[in-house]
Amino acid sequence: MSKAEILGNIRRGLNRGEPSPAQKAATTRRMNAHKATIIPKRSQLDQAGQIQLFRDMASGAAAELIDISTMNELPSAVAEWLNKHEFKTLVSASDDSLNELDWTPLGDIQREQRVAQSGDVASLTTSMAGIAETGTLMLYSRPESPTTLNFLPDCHLVVLKESDIAGSYEDAWNRLRELNPNGMPRTVNMITGPSRSADIGQKLQMGAHGPCALIIFILKNCETIFHSDG
Fold first, then answer.
1. Host domain of residue 27
2. Number of domains observed in the structure of the chain
3. Are residues 166 and 53 in the same domain?
């Protein structure tokens, strides 16, 4: 069933006809206004409070947090984690912030820049924002960071700068709009901890629909690494 058919059935169920031009214009104005919804009080903190809240919420959602002081420390930190788990391949985004690094600490671990495929064990991406109110990462698709990297590998490694942590979802969406003034990205992903499900027998299963592990490398006291399509 097409989208038009589904919406038509809803209209008929509500005893409403096709919207008039005035109604369509009013809806467009309301959507373009981006009026904020209710923002939880727990996210209305100063930057230090938002950072700590993000850490608490992300850890509570079973994400692993690893602190690094500079971007140059990332290859060694990634290599240490991969070697600990005896992984020999890494599928990586091709962001400039990653490609500019010296990846020799990986040793014999192969870093491949491509879309992820079934069977990949680990991927590495950057993140546009962290959302403190739920410990959620915001990522969006672009040529150098395809969405497959976020979901197909067993383990998702993500770089997040403390200064990219926002208090609420509304703040994060506003930042995304600023970065993409000509239109929204094709895909925006919200990731809170590893994939999980309790649909089968009410037993929690990690990795049910995506990565079974989420590892966040947090860069302390750094400038933002937002990416723009423009």
1. 1-33
2. 2
3. yes
Strands (E), 56-146: 64-68, 89-92, 110-113, 122-126, 129-131, 136-140
Q: Which of 138, 189, 133, 194 is nearest to 161 (CA)?
A: 138
What's the sign of the alpha-carbon dihedral 122, 195, 128, 50?
Answer: negative
DSSP letters spanning 175-220? HHHHH-TT---S-EEEE-SS-EE-TTTT--EETSSS-SEEEEEEET
Q: Note the residue count of the chain.
A: 230
Quote the pLDDT of residue 212: 92
Asked if 123 and 147 count as a contact pair (C-beta separation under 8 A), the reply is no
Predicted model pTM:
0.82
CB 179 within 8 A of CB 173: no
Residue 133 DSSP label: T
**Residue whose structure tokens are 């996210």:** 43
H-helix or E-strand spanning residue 159: strand 155-161
What pLDDT, in 10s, does the model give residues 7-27?
Answer: 889 988 888 888 888 888 888
65 and 132 part of one domain: yes
Which residue ranges in the chain fall short of pLDDT 70?
196-209, 222-230
Q: Is 98 in the same domain as 14?
A: no
Q: Is the domain of 101 the same as that of 162?
A: yes
